[in-house]
């Protein structure tokens, strides 16, 4: 019992402490995607992916040779220790780690998904593709739907005052519904403000998984 609890706490610490450090890549299905480690890696780099709350190893990129931990031939290593995914598909979406450090939160947008654009600070309404569906609960691929700025009405999700971090894939009734692309305002003052907000958000207090 106490061992279990201890493991829980360790994995919680692993994921919660560092959750905010991911880089974000959001792309359509494509021929290849390159994921980079956050920091320069001198020795081996082991890439892994978060699955059901634990990390499953993909490949160890060594100085001289690579060692694959899966049978999937689409994963390859580069000399700079980055991970290349060939023919990236929706199912590759997930959180990737380099030497157990958060590296990339990857969103591969499923084909046929509606892509909706909104400028920052504006209001946007996302619609459930299947209006007949009984289940129209909205969720996100990564993270939670914040309660303050988001509300649902007649199966629609209304976002007030859109923010950069709202960008991403939204699910309605458990199915991918809309990819929201929030365009950053290019005024330098606003970008500085955003950075300040980003720093506040990266404090451990808010980083829940
Ligand atoms: C989001 O919009 C920007 C331009 O505002 C574009 O450069 C980028 O490719 C878009 N992202 C996706 C995933 O469509
Ligand atoms: C993604 O694909 C959609 C069409 O499915 C296209 O409209 C959009 O521009 C593409 N985005 C990027 C970033 O390639
Ligand atoms: C975003 O703002 C630009 C320039 O202010 C404008 O041209 C564009 O139509 C806006 N996009 C949306 C989706 O409202």
From TrEMBL:
Gene3D superfamilies: Immunoglobulins (2.60.40.10). SUPFAM superfamilies: Immunoglobulin. Keywords: Signal. Residues 102-172 form the Ig-like domain. Pfam families: V-set (PF07686). Residues 1-20 form the signal peptide. Coiled coil: none annotated. This is Ig-like domain-containing protein. It comes from Oryzias javanicus (Javanese ricefish).
